[in-house]
Amino acid sequence: MDWQALTLSVKLALVTLLILLPLATLAARWLAFSRFRGRSMVEALMLVPLVLPPTVVGYYLLVGFGNQSLLGSWLKDWFGLELVFHFSGLVLASVLVNIPFALQPLQRAFEAIPKEVRDAAACCGMPALKIFWRIELPMIVPGLLTALVLCFSHVLGEFGVVLMMGGNIAGETKTVSIAIYDNVQAFNFDAAGIMSLLLLLFAIAALAITTSLSRRLGGQDGDHR
Amino acid sequence: MRPWLALCLTLLALPLRAETVTVAAAANLKFALEQIATDFEHSSGHKLRLSFGSSGNFATQLSHGAPFELFLSADEAYVLRLRQQGITDNDGVVYAYGRLALVAAKDSPLQLDDNLDGLKQLLTSGQLQRFAIANPELAPYGERARTLLEQKGLWQALQPKLVLGENVSQAAQFALGGSAQGGIVALSLSQAPAFKQRARVLALPLSSHAPLAQRMVLLPGAGRGAQAFYAYLQSEPARSTFADFGFALPEQP
């Protein structure tokens, strides 16, 4: 059992969520409420990571941010920031790959808020920020939870991206999926089995939590009391 | 939102990297190097962080700036190429000569012999479903296996039956997996207890393939620990471990 790899994966998932969820919430709200030309284009663009193989994302990050690339060497020279083969690079990759998983449930949640509720609040002179904080946010909780569980599970399972640009360095870029792969190659089937079972149980638990939560919280049309 | 903030700060405060020696090593070294590393850590007090993979992949990653201090390749070519690219400033040193082994799971019908007659027989009788080697494009052991099979005139006929491991470790695991009847992998891997329990092994003679001079090199920015390990790998205790795992050794300088 490789605890180091497991904690690294969990840490990666948490950091990814901290960055992605606030950004995705704002983006989802903007996409749900504003009408502008090219909105469907933006929506389609946000879905790209869903259909793009993770290895392809990994390849572009490796080539785009490596030492040989202009961007990579510029970041290194000016900010001392190295992304490829470092934890920070995995964070960037996870955020990119998980955009659709966070954005979709949140956007649906914002769209489900009845227009009358927001109009009423605005008519009564509630400032926009307060409307967001007191009315919208509580109503999108189910979507937020779905996004959270989806992204968290997805990060734990990430393999292609990490293999491409991680370099398999213990404690830095060796995530739990990579550790399973390594253990199978080294004929440590016990360790690989335990870690796989752990991820399987986690996946089942995550699904159970999401379905029960969405049943308890979702479905009602904004009648929060 | 306070607890979130606290969590955020805690995560940022976690040290991302303890001061240890990062080593990139060819997959065929997995078992031998782990043993050598344990001895070295005990005797020197330095901590090692070993990453195993295919030499080709590591060479690519190193040219993109992977943060390793020492690179142990399965073949000279990758180390010399890094020198040409200006990634390293010296040619490093040959630390061992690798050998190929023909392996088969204990219950496999494959007969093991130097001339690969058993493999030929199994192939013509149609009993061979799968045969594993490392990817010749990425892994030196795969490239040598391909050359050997070409010499024996088996390469073309084997094509539809071949499974390629991304590195020689994966090839070894494929070779003993349920659906393959055998494979050609690194002798050093087949010496590990976990492997020996499952397999029959035949060391192929050194004359049957071009020598696999395994070369290592220190990368720019290698610290004192890396330099100490580099020296230790050429010392007697390490050499005898390499020999135990079936490596031939270079002359002592």
Automatic annotation (TrEMBL), chain A:
Principal place of residence: membrane
InterPro entries membership: MetI-like, MetI-like_sf, ModB_ABC
Mode of membrane association: Multi-pass membrane protein
PROSITE patterns for this protein: ABC_TM1 (PS50928)
Protein name in UniProt: Molybdenum transport system permease
TM annotation in the entry: 12-32, 44-63, 83-103, 137-156, 191-210
Gene for this chain: modB
Keywords associated with the record: Cell inner membrane, Cell membrane, Membrane, Molybdenum, Transmembrane, Transmembrane helix, Transport
Every ABC transmembrane type-1 domain range: 6-210
Organism: Shewanella cyperi
GO molecular function: molybdate ion transmembrane transporter activity
PANTHER family: MOLYBDENUM TRANSPORT SYSTEM PERMEASE, MOLYBDENUM TRANSPORT SYSTEM PERMEASE PROTEIN MODB
Localization annotation: Cell inner membrane; Cell membrane
Listed GO CC annotations: plasma membrane
Function, in words: Part of the binding-protein-dependent transport system for molybdenum; probably responsible for the translocation of the substrate across the membrane.
The family this protein is said to belong to: Belongs to the binding-protein-dependent transport system permease family. CysTW subfamily.
Automatic annotation (TrEMBL), chain B:
Binding annotation for molybdate: 55, 168
CDD domains for this protein: PBP2_AvModA
Recorded GO MF terms: metal ion binding; molybdate ion binding; tungstate binding
Domain of life: Bacteria
Keyword Transmembrane helix appears in the UniProt entry: no
GO biological process, one term: molybdate ion transport
Keyword Signal in record: yes
Keywords (A to Z) from UniProt: Metal-binding, Molybdenum, Signal
Annotated InterPro entries: AvModA-like_subst-bd, ModA, ModA/WtpA
Pfam families in alphabetical order: SBP_bac_11 (PF13531)
Signal peptide extent: 1-18
Family to which this protein belongs: Belongs to the bacterial solute-binding protein ModA family.
PANTHER family: MOLYBDATE-BINDING PERIPLASMIC PROTEIN, TUNGSTATE_MOLYBDATE_CHROMATE-BINDING PROTEIN MODA
Subunit structure: The complex is composed of two ATP-binding proteins (ModC), two transmembrane proteins (ModB) and a solute-binding protein (ModA).
Protein name (record): Molybdate ABC transporter substrate-binding protein
